[in-house]
Amino acid sequence: MFEDKIKKLLTKIPHSPETPNLTNKFLERVDEQIQFDISQGINAETAQNNISILLKELENLINQAADSQNSAVMLKQLEKSIIQILELKSVNEFTVNLANITELHFNYRIGDLIILPTKGDQLIVKDLMSRDIPKLYSTIEKVGNVVKITQGPRKLVGLFKNKILLFVPDNYASFLTVRSQSGKVTLIGLSSHCMLDLTNISGRVLLSNLKVKRFQADLKSSNLLMTNCFSQNWHINSQSGKIKAEAINCSNTEQAMLITTSSGSIDLTNITGQAIQINNKSGNLHLDQINSNTEITTNSGNIKFANIIKKTDIVTHSGNCKLSLNSKFQDTINVKNISGNIHLKLASESFPMRFNAETNLGRINLPMDTIIYASDNFNIMKGYLNQEDAPALAVLKSDVGHIDVTTLITKK
Length: 412
What we know:
This protein is an alpha/beta fold. Helix content is about 15%, strand content about 50%. The protein has a domain at about 5-85. The protein has a 25-stranded mixed sheet that branches. α1 packs across α2 (about 20-40), α2 (about 20-40) packs across α3 (about 45-65) and α3 packs antiparallel against α4. The longest helix is centred in the first third of the chain and has 24 residues, at about 45-65. The mean pLDDT is about 85. This is DUF4097 domain-containing protein. Keywords: Coiled coil.
């Protein structure tokens, strides 16, 4: 009865050449799940209805992934997760009533976590394993208004694969903490307005279509990919890992979105909010379409920032800065580079701009039509292009490096 639904569902994700029998695997897995539910005392009609609900939720997730900025990446990740899930056996499952629960904690040492939303009012926990190891089953501990879901204590398991499916109700709006070691964490479609605290060591974190009240992540040797996510508060701390984010919204008007990294590249596109603050010790930065006030502090690494539209402050000790202004820029860009070049590109030849450029060891090149004020200090150039009282101001300083300001040549 599920064959047509599954075929229609799988046409929406890109199939790999090595997975021609994905539909058959899916049907086998569905049948196993129904038989498992029946063995647990659930009647056949309810078991089949549960499968229908899960397929509908999976369809919603695939549609969300297809609409995301990183649709190809998201769909590929979903395909991989589906294939891996189909290769594992469901060995443990339970539900938890979250009524009056104010804290929900997930704590896992090995295995991949897949956290998905559910329209129901109960948390659903499913353990999938390549070998049935009961000592690694998820266990529940409830103390007052706090629920803890923890992996069993066994450590040495040999050749082994496992995944944990966690279905969090949409109406859960309290604290949610996720702790994971040596595994990937995937959160897709979670929109419960909860306060999410995530810790991952030596893995990868994938977030898509996330809508939470607060998001805090502490990552170590872990890569982070985010797309189409919304939160009032963002705090991301990373050690030795890459961060890539697209279509991120931070609605807090009092507190900046904060990203702190010790080592690793940062790639941000289409970020909206009041302010964003980036502290990076070592790694390249690539930013584009940042619709918020931006503050960047970095020790070493190149910075490429395109389509700057709002107030921007950059302090870097070592590395080149390649920057370009959006035609709507009407604010101040302040760049201080200890050792490295600064290249700023204006939106057009007619773009009005004021300049204050300074370098101790290096040249300063401004657009040809710039009016430069007379000065006895040849290390400093002040002037303007097209409008003396232009609202846009560039304050550029490099101790050891060149400063070049160019314009995007407009075709006549």
